Amino acid sequence: MGRQWLHAKRLVAGAKKAKTNTKLVREITLAAKMGGADPTMNARLFAAVEKAKKDSVPKDAIQRAINKGAGVGDDKLTLEYVVYEGRAPHNVPVIIEVYTDNVQRTAPEIRVLFRKGQLASSGANKFVFDNVGLVEAHHPDATIDPEEAAIEAGANEVEPLTRDQNDDIPVGAAGAKFICERTEVANVSKWLAANGWTVITSEIGFIAKTFSELTEAQQEEVGDFLHALDEHDDVHRVWAAIK
């Protein structure tokens, strides 16, 4: 085969990077639409732009995404927000957030993914989740007290966040997930940024109230199903009641 395998590997890596960049650009657009075009006044946009820069998304692509979301110029945002609810294999509740320019195309594609998931099924389950504000951040001082920061920032809860859970956390830094009211996301993010924390993500999301107990083999099956959902171009976030 010679070096054909290397060429194939590069093609796969390139395709994955393109998909990642598409989702990063979409997040920038949505953040600008929801909170305005100024990253210094929009914590979600600031976090999205920083992540895009880290992943080498071109500056002009970032600016176009901001303009599109903010309604600047001729290229206006036409995406529709849709939430799908269902069960992953082994009855694990899931919520899928989608942004699409064609619901009639996306809806049947999501249904096909559920059918391919064998034991997966659609159906209402939002009652299993709390809809909250989520801010992930890291601090260069590994000895800092995240609980004290959470109180000062106005968050309700805080959970440790390791590099294994989010590779945006530098080695030796303290990572944390701050959970707050939906209306407090911007305030929590701004306080953290002003007090030495680097905000990685700042968004409204879902946290399960209870978690499914699964064997290792079952976890792998659920993981494969969730990965297939996340790979869909229109899927923005996948939330599941699994640790």
Automatic annotation (TrEMBL):
Q: Which residues form the TACO1/YebC-like second and third domain?
A: 80-240
**Keyword annotations:** DNA-binding, Transcription, Transcription regulation
Organism field? Humisphaera borealis
Q: Which GO terms describe its molecular function?
A: DNA binding
Superkingdom classification of source: Bacteria
GO CC terms = cytoplasm
Domain TACO1/YebC-like N-terminal per the UniProt entry, residue ranges: 8-71
Q: What is this protein called?
A: YebC/PmpR family DNA-binding transcriptional regulator
Tell me the InterPro entries matching this sequence: Integrase-like_N, TACO1_YebC-like_2nd/3rd_dom, TACO1_YebC_N, Transcrip_reg_TACO1-like, Transcrip_reg_TACO1-like_dom3, YebC-like
| Annotated family | Belongs to the TACO1 family.
User: What Pfam families does the annotation carry?
Assistant: TACO1_YebC_N, Transcrip_reg
